[in-house]
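Margin note from the TA: students keep mixing up input and output lines. Inputs are the sequences; the output is the structure of the whole complex. Example:
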Amino acid sequence: MVRPPCCDKLNLKRGLWTEEEDAKMLAYVSKHGTGNWTAVPKKAGLKRCGKSCRLRWTNYLRPDLKHDGFTPQEEEMIVRLHAAIGSRWSIIAQQLPGRTDNDVKNYWNTKLRKKLSEMGIDPVTHKPFSQILADYGNIGGFRKPGTRVGPLNKDLKSAIMLKSEPYPAARQGFPNFNSQLMTATISPQKEPIQDTLFNNNHTDNYPSDLLAELQAIKLVTEASNCSNIETIPPPAFAEASLSSSSVSYSPTCSATAAQEKASLDFSWHDFLLDDAFLPTDPQEQETTAEYSSKEFASQKQKGILQISDTDNEAATQESNTKAKAIECAVISNDFEASSSSDFAFVEAMLYQEYEMLLDFPNLEPFYY
DNA sequence: AAGCTAGACAACCGCGTTCCG
DNA sequence: TCGGAACGCGGTTGTCTAGCT
């Protein structure tokens, strides 16, 4: 492992902090405050680098930090935000007073990720594993009969190893199973994430960059909802990737009666055995994409995508930049053809790997 | 009692961004 | 405008501890 040059040169201490060091840090910060961390260790009489001091302060010593366990509400918040924006831990932590990004990240990695896996949900995409498997098996219609299912992510694999039955935790009374978490993640959401986080009553509470993120999230999630009007997706899973171009949408769409009915009639058992997400009719998919991009452009012109907070020009600009990125993905021909060209590319990749694995049966597929 | 393992969490590392002279 | 220092972030590693064999 390569040590930072500063620590090597100055023979600075590393590793866990002692109580004495903590006391020195606290004494110094309470007297002088934070700022210029490179000067802090010297002034505080610590043989640490500034970076280490800053980390110790922000992650542990800060007086406003909570050191107790996460509440179910906090869990739910983390899951929802992770579904919406991915591993942007600092942004997620901002929504949880007294929690640091490190806290949230550690909690996710040690608890929540496992919990979701055990519930049959891929913690990366927040989709049921069965759907991912179905998607995988149906990409471009590619899969040779009788062949192995190729590379899967680690969480999916471990979940499959655990049990093929859907949501074993929920069905078998998993000891620490949290029903709220289940609701937040997999049930048909009565209150979609974009509504929960983005409505006017709440936006004041979010920093501008998060607002920008949320605006993009709103666009993407609405896109997901609207692109499946014929085959309603049971949960309104928020797409984690903002750069995803595999969605088509109309920003103004709202839940239809058909959607509501479908939600009520929804059965997880059926869903998990079903391949409901995949477009069945290529023409319909194309039409939807075309309509959506036009509709999007129209809405954009009307200024619907602008952030209402006129006091914050920077936020507006940033938001527009991000919204534009989404717009590009939606409007470009590449997007409209995503189902064919992207799949063709993926198909080619998968086939290459398939052939390679045939030639080298002992070779581990990537994704590990 | 000793060794092993997994879980929890603290700390580190590298890299991108921001700030400032 | 540029370059270096400082800062912030996300991923990864290290360490400690409890439970099990």
